[in-house]
Amino acid sequence: MRISKQSIVKIITMGLTVGVVLVNLFLVNNLERLRQQDAERYNEALWFLFQLNKEFKDLTHEAELYSLGHMNLDKVMLAYDVTWSRFDILLNSKEAQRFQEYDYLLMTFTQAFSRFKTLETTFARVENGKLTAQELFEAIRRQHFMIIDELNGVFMMKNPVAMKQVEVMNQQYKTVKGTLAASLVLFFGVIWVLWHDRQHHHRLATADPLTQLSNRLAMNQALTNFTAQQTPFSLILIDLNHFKYINDTYGHPFADKLLISLAQRLRTIADSDSECYRIGGDEFVLLHRSHTELNLDEAVSALEHHISTPIILDGKSLVVTASIGAAQYPLDADDTESLMLIADQRMYREKHRHHQCQKVKMRG
Length: 364
Fold this sequence. Notes:
This protein is of the alpha+beta class. The chain is 72% helix and 9% strand. The chain folds into 2 domains: 5-173, Up-down Bundle (Four Helix Bundle (Hemerythrin (Met), subunit A)), CATH 1.20.120; 216-363, Alpha-Beta Plaits (2-Layer Sandwich), CATH 3.30.70.270.
């Protein structure tokens, strides 16, 4: 079986659409997963930072009370041990493993912990009397401000590593937007191809290739619609007289030109309430909505006159006549088969009358 070029284009377009949509879905899912992971890690790190800051504040407060003589050194050292434990949880507990996957966060907390542990030397010098309580308080407060400011800077995304993470996610977001736009373009492209393909096949199925008038299939569809909606209409059946003689005398190409010329004439007759059809070799049908019996007779007479107007083809002048039979729905019949039969019978009576007239003329 041979596949048409249009079918190949349709298959390729549909395949590309599906592919781009799948890629787009993958990127959206991946971006959402990364965003969610980043949000969870960031929130966990913020929570640990909040706890660390709380412990550090308590330590600073205890040191201040000690410098004012309201607290002994043991309680300050106890607050130091609690803060030291918070750092240990940050760096070694399972609860902190998620945000530790970010190297820059782990490195930042490790460096902060290293600076914090230098306070042990400060405590030792206070115990030896080499530093005063006020100097201990100043050292702890200084470490508190330095460490918390540095960590705040990290979480405010001021470091290059964090900015790189944001850049990567923004780039992925742009990629997703681009693939989504491509998906929409391809999707509407597929819809257009399918619609165009359907219209093309519908035209092929319902149009006469020679005259470009609608064909028998289109007429049957129109008749079905009219009767289903109970729309009154007239069916006018047209059969050309002596067309076989013209075909045999002048040849098929000439006869085809004649049919095309007559089709153009019939097309000019049709108005917004009418439609012309070619249903056979030299047979045509005119469907007209809402004709009364009186003006139907006038329409048939006008149609006979219009058809019999001389036609100039290839330098030859021809007068073509036609036998016409008409029937009305629902006046003559309330179904299409009976209506066609009545119009056909009236058309053949007219053709018989035409042949009788021709014989009389020949005898005369």
